[in-house]
């Protein structure tokens, strides 16, 4: 555990605690962790100006992963937490749904109404008609996951989370058998860092911290692979721009070259992998020429990349989420992951392949989630298919009752979920009662019947796990919230009491009591002792992290031949959901599999909806700094495509497919390939003409074999608006 000082004000001449200096001349410093849906989970130093006000936020300098660096949007968090448009009072709808007419209510009256509606819905259709819906607006384990305790205690419909990690985690575990990998700080000890499928400059700034350190101190090469020349690509020594959904082809051609040119570590392959001979034979036809035709890369680019990683034993493959958000995304992850097994990079410090450490933390969630109440017979509903669920699709409902009541926390599905037209149509149903617990009047809140004001992360206690690194971090309450907002567990406990389950284990505890229980079971002391330490480094030892003692499959071998249905991963669908997507078409060995939504005559372009630098999903789209930096909703189009369509930079253009149409402004640029369109950031729907945003165009059909949403895999047509 890190030996660090407790939370305290800065001292010394000129500080607020110096009796000879003016009061509040220098703010106190509090310590926390970023709560947002980002693998970096940065350790934070927060300027505390008053009991209810913060100043600047900085990265903790003594945290070995954060290393003093955070993204600009979190550094400006005071814009968000002190925003004049924060929700401060419970609101009850007084006009038509979505009209925006509200009347204020007391907390007691608002919660009484929610409980009354839930009870009435259950009496008519049974408990599964109620669907608590949440996700990662906060990554705090107490505030995010306590909603499951209410779900299980009341036997409400289950929640199959699919919007983010499924394809990536599944593809990685198919190879390694576990969600763990080399210490991500080892990037700084690498001779080559491959940043694959993530725009780290915008979305995981700490990846760049350690990669650039390797470049400065060791002369390491940085390779970036993505579908457009984004800010991370501009930092790279070798930037490979592939067509969307073709990463598996690049990986296979790379491994073909490794075998062909004697760069495969055959001793490692024989000891640690399941079928190297079968893989080599399979790859004989997966030549650079074959991959060039699929990916759009040149043969020379593929050869250069393969030779670099084959000759550089200390190559660290940092595998992101972006390239898995295609209908073949799980296979793409597995193929890219397999390269490190062919080179034997796992053997070396600074080598191997890392995606997430989410499997290392060992925190007991049973009390928080109420798993002892869980009934395996209760149906689960797919998060990404919320539009289909709310519009009564029998397949999406798995033969159960309609959803007629919802509690929504930590997510904004009316903006971020696929198939937006179905989502909005579902929320506008008169027979659907929706309660949204939120910080701002999001587009989901605007469609609700009751809106409850929520605290922000500095206003309540919680604990966080850094999936992109190895720290468990505490986020204690540092400031008082405005009068009105309440933390998530307050809402859960108050509803449980009204719904007749508040006397069950886990309900009625404070966040600190939950944290005391969790920390004690993990051997990390109590809230108070952990508050002194601030975080715990739980990175496994080198041999475990690098699978030196064997991979986590029963035979100890890396699997080139995945068991697409039998591999146990926590993304595996519940029994009632079953196999997902075109799982029977998944390849026997790493390969490019043509499951993507390929362009056709009517839809000649492929659209990726990539993250922007100043937004994080739909968060920060309300803060002035982020809005100013992002400008307006735009779509990037290559000059050749713009010329052929008669489009100039800045023109209003319409893009569409069978799901709908959206108007944006054209940004004509050669950072994208011909035939590829990129729209960065999830802008509010209201920021677009017609009030419809980019997720009108994305589909909710599942990624094989364990689900997921293919946000970067859409074929579209394009025309001047």
UniProtKB/TrEMBL annotation:
Biased composition (Low complexity): 9-22
Record-annotated membrane-spanning stretches: none
Superkingdom assignment: Bacteria
Entry annotated with the keyword Metal-binding: yes
Region feature Disordered, mapped onto this chain: 1-30
One Pfam assignment: Molybdop_Fe4S4
Family classification: Belongs to the prokaryotic molybdopterin-containing oxidoreductase family.
Name of the featured protein: Molybdopterin oxidoreductase family protein
